[in-house]
Specification:
alpha+beta; Phosphorylase Kinase, domain 1; Aminoglycoside 3'-phosphotransferase, Chain: A, domain 2; 39% helix; EC 2.7.1.72; kinase; aminoglycoside 6-kinase activity
Length: 283
């Protein structure tokens, strides 16, 4: 029996591709001033991209803050993503860096319009995410080994440290995982102190920034790929911590993080410190 791709949002045959209701709601809550124009113009912009690549939209994918659509062309399947996020260009630059390292899909184009940023990427096949799948750390390790000691080409990218510092200090953010509540002030203060101790020595290194199970896709030959980066520079040890914590397992997160760190070849104590911060920041 064929495996169903959990990222697909089936669209009725012949139906017009629309921005999903959950994306509409999330974008409106996060960027109320930018959302109206984006919601109005993004479907027309999609039509323009389809015309440019001589393709047709097939279906939408599950996403939180982006309009993500599969396009069928005569040559290949593409995945296009539009977001009104002011950090959209930063996200696109990190996505390109991940492709250059062999851990992300090919980026064909980045299109910036007055209301959004579009990335045009090759479709990963089969493209299932690891969400809900138990995966051994031995399978995750090759991704992060490829990311070791890789500097960003753009030294003006926002930093992971700054993003986490802001998140630990601001309970008003509406970007909270479903079903979660903010950490206590004591937990956040402790995490903030650890964050400062880690310093900014890796602030110009390539970092995905959100290596959770839904952003890790299975490709040909069971190879894994990272998609939908946060658009920051930082420390791959943070990615190791988040991947260990946010991929399904029966292992304790700290044990799993230490095991993955050893396989990747990074400092286990540093990964454990990032794990404490990530949990307190409710990433």
């Amino acid at each position: 029996m064929a495996k169903t791709n959990k990222n697909f949002r089936p669209d009725p045959v012949g139906a017009e591709i629309e921005i999903p209701a959950n994306v509409n709601e999330a974008v409106t809550a996060c960027w109320p001033e930018l959302a109206p124009a984006w919601l109005k113009k993004a479907p027309d912009e999609l039509a323009g991209i389809c015309e440019r690549y001589e393709g047709r939209p097939v279906r939408t994918f599950n996403a939180r803050y982006g309009f993500v659509v599969e396009i069928a062309t005569a040559h290949e399947r593409l995945v296009v993503r539009s977001t009104p996020d002011p950090r959209g260009m930063d996200q696109a630059q990190v996505a390109q860096a991940l492709f250059n390292m062999g851990v992300g899909p090919r980026i064909h184009d980045v299109v910036q319009t007055p209301v959004s940023v579009w990335t045009v990427a090759s479709r990963i096949f089969p493209g299932d995410s690891l969400k809900g799948e138990t995966v051994p750390v031995e399978r995750l390790a090759p991704i992060f080994r490829k990311m070791l000691d890789r500097k960003t080409e753009n030294d003006r990218l926002p930093t992971l440290v700054d993003w986490l510092r802001s998140r630990l200090n601001d309970e008003r953010s509406n970007d909270l995982p479903s079903g979660r509540t903010w950490a206590s002030q004591v937990e956040r203060r402790r995490a903030a102190a650890i964050l400062e101790d880690l310093g900014t020595e890796d602030s110009n290194m390539v970092c995905h920034g959100d290596a959770s199970s839904s952003n890790i896709l299975v490709g040909d030959g069971e190879e894994l790929f990272l998609v939908d980066p946060r658009g920051v520079s930082g420390d791959v040890c943070y990615d190791v911590a988040v991947a260990a914590w946010k991929t399904p397992t029966d292992e304790q997160a700290s044990v799993r993080a230490a095991n993955l760190a050893r396989l990747v070849g990074v400092d286990t104590e540093r990964v454990q410190a990032w794990l404490v911060i990530a949990k307190a920041a409710r990433v």
